[in-house]
Write a structure and sequence with these properties.
Length: about 300
């Protein structure tokens, strides 16, 4: 895995070197478009801020839009960016399949397209995202160990995009290593705090012997935590993201939130832009570049931030 450098210019040079390519000495004024699935989430806001810093680093103009989880809006947002003449499109799809027409339009326009965080159907040039299977597996492994290898657990699921599916698959595979742990339920919290809280309340009522919950993201986990605390039950909670509020919750005394598999949103966006630049300057790039994740438990939480 490439070490993420402090400036985009040095990161581009590092990628070019690792791929055996020559990095150009300079570049023309670029227009970069970034379509987010949402910006009502600290994870994506962190990405946005990192992109703006990176664009400033290379003197590029940047357009940023928020799809509000509406694939029709996201498609229209991308079409508007193409009309503005963007050279590079960074796409964080709200629907991996539904956004395909926008990807096709970008390809026809000759715009380099890199999917960020979630894969997109269609002729994208590359995908940069976390090792989501590993994130789910690590969280599951830790939960299984903390439960002493026995008990009942439930899954707080999310929207059916590849990263979420992979996290659930990783968690489920981890559970197979603990024959005395039974997965007693899986319900969709839609990765939203209020929805996840209500769904978790239902799971707790339906499973009075529940010992653990895996949430596919930290926002949902924070809703689940509210439900767990209100129930008075001894249920351990693990998740994925590394969200600042999740880290804060883990550090509270006797917290039921025991670990999260942290992602690195700054690294994802800067790496995605860097390889798009390499492609823009005429060199081939990998079809995908995975970004490592790291399990953060209470002991590590005090020194962690995005």
């Amino acid at each position: 895995m490439l070490k993420i450098s402090k400036t985009l210019k040095s990161l581009v040079a590092g990628i070019a070197c690792s791929l055996g390519l020559a990095s150009p000495a300079g570049a023309e004024q670029l227009k970069i478009g970034m379509s987010f699935q949402e910006l009502n989430n600290a994870y994506f806001v962190t990405m946005k801020n990192a992109l703006e810093e990176a664009a400033k680093d290379i003197g590029a103009e940047v357009y940023i839009t928020d799809a509000h989880h509406d694939v029709s809006k996201q498609i229209n947002d991308v079409e508007d960016m193409l009309q503005k003449g963007v050279d590079i499109l960074l796409l964080n799809p709200t629907d991996s399949v539904g956004v395909q027409s926008a990807v096709v339009s970008a390809k026809k326009a000759g715009v380099i397209t890199v999917a960020i965080d979630a894969e997109a159907e269609g002729p994208i040039d590359s995908f940069v995202g976390s090792k989501n299977y590993t994130a789910g597996y690590m969280a599951g492994k830790y939960l299984g160990e903390q439960l002493g290898g026995k008990g009942e657990v439930a899954i707080l699921d999310g929207i059916p995009v590849v990263p979420i599916l992979e996290r659930v698959r990783g968690f489920s595979d981890a559970m197979l290593e603990f024959p005395d742990i039974k997965v007693v339920g899986k319900q969709n919290g839609k990765q939203e705090r209020d929805v996840a809280m209500n769904v978790t309340e239902n799971m707790l009522q339906a499973n009075p012997g529940l010992d653990g919950v895996f949430s596919v993201n930290d926002t949902g986990a924070l809703g689940a935590l509210t439900a767990i605390e209100a129930s008075g039950m001894d249920v351990k909670l693990v998740s994925v993201d590394g969200h600042p509020e999740a880290i804060k919750a883990m550090l509270k005394p006797n917290s039921k939130f025991i670990a999260t598999s942290a992602q690195f949103p700054r690294d994802q966006i800067r790496l995605g832009l860097a390889i798009a630049l390499v492609k823009h300057w005429g060199s081939e790039i990998p079809a995908s570049m995975p970004v490592d994740v790291k399990l953060i438990d209470k002991a590590a939480a005090a020194n962690f931030s995005w």
